[in-house]
Design a protein that fits this description.
globular; D-Amino Acid Oxidase, Chain A, domain 2; alpha+beta; 487 residues; single chain; binds flavin-adenine dinucleotide; 3 domains; 10-stranded mixed sheet; FAD/NAD(P)-binding domain
Amino acid sequence: MNRAESIDRLRRKDPWDLLIIGGGATGAGCAVDAASRGYRTALIEAHDFGKGTSSRSTKLIHGGVRYLEQGDIPLVMEALKERGILRENAPHLVTDLAFVVPNYEWWEAPFYGIGLRLYDLLAGKYGFGKSRNLNKEETLERLPALKQDGLRGGVIYYDGQFDDARLLIHLALTAEQQGATLVNYCPAIALITGAGGMIAGAVARDSESGEEYEIRAGAVINATGCFSDAVRRMTDAGAASMIAPSQGAHLVFDGSFLRGDSAILVPHTTDGRVMFAIPWHGHALVGTTDTAIEDVSAEPAPMEQEIEFILETAGRYLSRAPRREDVLSAWAGIRPLVKAGSGGGTASLSRSHSVHIDTNGLVTIAGGKWTTYRHMAEDCVGQAAVLAGLEERECVTRQLRIHRYESPADGIQAEVARAVRMEMARTVEDVLARRTRMLFLNARAAMEMAPRVAELMASELGRGAGWRSAQVDEFRALAARYSAFAG
Ligand SMILES: Cc1cc2nc3c(=O)[nH]c(=O)nc-3n(C[C@H](O)[C@H](O)[C@H](O)COP(=O)(O)OP(=O)(O)OC[C@H]3O[C@@H](n4cnc5c(N)ncnc54)[C@H](O)[C@@H]3O)c2cc1C
């Protein structure tokens, strides 16, 4: 992806069939779907691709054991099917992961054993592997770092794991391969109203040059996650909010806190949720929480009580309880949940997606999960195409392979070159937070790498010393927030 060429196309090709605002999983999924149906498709992202929630997930491609407990069988079945489709289309990006539910009470083995067999059954031909009960020795073989006091055994089951920011970049590359034009650092700052008061495009501002463009399209898809209501209010200041934002935090520790290749699922935390401890890029990733919030931000920070809660829960299951000073990186994301209209906490709100069309024709897609992005896009693009009066074309993404590199880059110099030349990385943060995951794994180590990355990027992008030092300062200020919770 070349940014200058993409901006050129954005300027010239007018009008587009579909304009997508937002470059997270939902927007990128819509771009893949629309372009592969043959629609002329443009996507603009305010920051970097995946800057929002889509780089801050628990990194599971899963049916959602928790939704099974809640009795939301249709959602579990949809997600299990999408899990299987994604593994088929992106075997280089989705891997199988074994999860163990440790049992400390006599009733847990039969209870979770039966529940997880139902999970296998619902997956049908999309299954990842059969669940089964483990005795104490087998459980400890899988999870040597588990607390042994009172341990009776466990239940093992299988789900998928991925690197969210990496899959996102591959979706953006796939969309471009299919003919879409995607640009980062280019927020929509206003919507354009056409004949009959219908939305006919958006005004975008290139954050790098300050230039503004009018982008016209048959229909506009608002895929801005927790910012969906802000975009809807660009033309309708009184639009009732449809998003109930909910924050989830994660803590990352050294891999020695969770030895072995299996993950732990804590099926019932003290606040009635599930919690995961997962091996991820050689580290232990623990989370998450579900905290209803009022204000949304592109860089949400974990709250004090979220940190305490995760540490406390991890300490109840791990033989070596992690402490604050063991936190290598702490970060949070915001779920763009769709309001149900009734009361109750955000944990009980459905994770199903919703396509909402305002009376001015703006199409908003929100909710859902990373796992279901393909199905969400199929649904949304189908509706947007009808609204725009486009020729009806079948969705083809069920069998569409996700972009694959010939040879993976090795070493930081090669990573930076690839990120800048092929993946539209523009800042040190893009490289250290999303093209590699250093910031999310170890914030202090990422800070130390910033000057070298800035130097390599400056030579790739033709920038001077002023840009380099400003980039390093900005990145260090950001990374300080990710490491602020360490002791
Ligand atoms: C803590 C947590 C854990 C999760 N774990 C999982 C998991 O393990 N598995 C799973 O399947 N799902 C998981 N999810 C859900 C999943 O991450 C989200 O459903 C998904 O990432 C939402 O993607 P999105 O594209 O809708 O939103 P986002 O990723 O937030 O994308 C919206 C984008 O719109 C951009 N934007 C905003 N305003 C504008 C504008 N004016 N112009 C242009 N662009 C704009 C933003 O910069 C942002 O990049 C998790 C969610 C959270 C919060």
